[in-house]
Amino acid sequence: MTKFEKRIFRIGVGIGLAGFTLCSAMAYLLSAPAFAMVASVFAFIGIVIAFLWFIQACADSFRDYGLGEGTANLYGEDHAKRIFGENYMKPKP
To answer: Which residues touch 72 (CB under 8 Å, ≥6 apart)?
Structure first.
């Protein structure tokens, strides 16, 4: 995972968390169900982005472990590229 991808994931989760917190506070203070609905949308966005971040981190750790090369040996390079991306090979130390 590149630094840019990490930054984008952090920003997305941060926006989701900040939006959820702000809209939840506004829904509580103003007793407005519309803010509660918007807060749930922000929470959903944050959860989805965090899930994608987790999946990307898992793929990176599996790639570092050598699973991408094993997948390429068993199922071919096209399948390994589809699962792990273009850099499916284990990084050289």
So the answer is: 79, 80, 88, 89
